[in-house]
Specification:
By secondary structure, the chain is mainly β. It has seven helices and 32 strands.
Amino acid sequence: MEPLSFQEYICSLDPATLPRILRVCSGVYFQGSVYEISGNECCLSTGDLLKVTAVALQKVICEDADTGQTMELPPTFKGERGCPAPSRTPGPAPRGPLPEGGRDRGLTLQQALGNGRARPLLCRALGPRALLLRPVYEVHAAMDLRAALPQCAGTWEVDVEDVTEEAQDVRFSQPLLLSEVLAMAHMLPAQAEILEGLAGPAVFQSSWGPRLRQGQRLQLHGCSSAWRVLASAPGRSRHFLLTSTYRDWLRMRPRQFTGVQELAAALRPGRALRVVVTQDCEGRGLHVPPLSVGDRLRALGLQGHGPGTRLRCRRHSEEEEEEEGEELLLPLDLGGSFVEEARSSRRYGLGELLEQQALPCDVRVVAPDPALARDALGSLPALRLEARLDQPFLVGSFCEEPEQGFEVPPQWMDCSVLLRQGPVRPAPPCAPVEELTEAFYYRLLAQLPCSRAPPPPRPPKPAQAGMGPKGKPPLAPGSPGPAPMGPAPPVLPQRSTSSLCGQRGCPGDADPGSDSSEHDYETIDDTIQKTVHKMQAVFPF
């Protein structure tokens, strides 16, 4: 075909024939022309090949054929009755569409644009004068030797010719997101160049994360088959992702519970919970006997519904069998302090532990991975395993440092890359532990589903003798009501030491902004922690 201006070609292009391959023939430039398009520079030279993959109408410029004044129309413009009408001779328009070929003919905006040639048109919604329509298209195109062009208007001042038939074997560069590369595993391993860096806050506190910026060359080796575990160091604001390749030996830490409510929340179907009382607790008449330090309890399950729900337990001495002893029904609002009874000091690998123990659970690293030069988890007194994650990761490395690998989660760290030709070395080893930033940790918690059903609500504190509801003295008959008071300070949400849901606001958690008068719960004595520390010396960690 004969060369056409790029704008004329795009205006006459039938979208049903895409993709089309064009060769740049000439233009108003010296050995290349640089266009500033939405802040991105692109350079077109004679001989460059473009593969047009999509064309979309961006707007239409209307020019008054007599005065030269212009206005813009959106691509959704329909006009009065939705039909600009063609006219052979400019002039004032009558009250209906102008006839053509002996009959009334209404056209949509797309039909009125026709094959791109400017024609005088009339539309009653735009006035009585004839208008010339000039469409402006948004073009998506790829290049054969460079990165793809940005989305741009088809108004370049260059001439092109269609060479689709003779250029079928030309390979064009196609930008891909890492998430798209993940779904095209058959294309890996491959080299890649980052076209657009990561957006948003950092995910990992690592040295390789900030290097994923524009222009960086990578080796993408393939998809990682490892699963991961979200873990935290209680009280230290440190959070980690452990992969299934982590080789440290772990030992279960006994959990600590404050009150019967937390015991009930820690129950798992088909698994009895064995605890030791670490603080004396007064009883409630004949039906709820007192609990003493050293009492062994086996929590069996919940009995009843609503406010009358009780935790069914069996209390037994060290000499008695678990099936023997006294059966107790403990109300959920009963206080006290308990520590999980450790029956074994066995060490577990990460995979074995998850097979036998539901999450969340508390552990301690007792034998660091000998393959790690420095194990950040070995120095922590405790580690809480919170949830298992199965998000897919890509194994990558830097071309200039191929001996050190890393694993990128496209779901959290997506960026645009361009696959390149070149050799790729075998996949290097990757760190089995990555530390998360605190900001991303809480963002991740909000995305995770609750690991279990929410615990039953904490019952209110029972009213004492001579006290009204919520622990307030009763009003004398005829006395005025209480004086108005300012809003009560907010209370922190009640959190179970064994529940991940309590950390991320699952149903059943207290509202941090709620009025404290609506949550008048039992308070726990400050000596609990001292007693727990004494009991910890008895049980192995």
